[in-house]
Amino acid sequence: MFVREIELFNGIASHIIDEIAELATEETFPLGHVLFRKGDVADYLYILEEGAVNIVIQEQGHISFPVNQLGRVLGWSALVEPNRYTATAECVKDSKVIKIDGGRLMRILEKHPREGMTIMRRLAGVIATRLVKSYQEVSASQR
Question: The CATH number of the domain where 99 resides is what?
Answer without folding.
Answer: 2.60.120.10
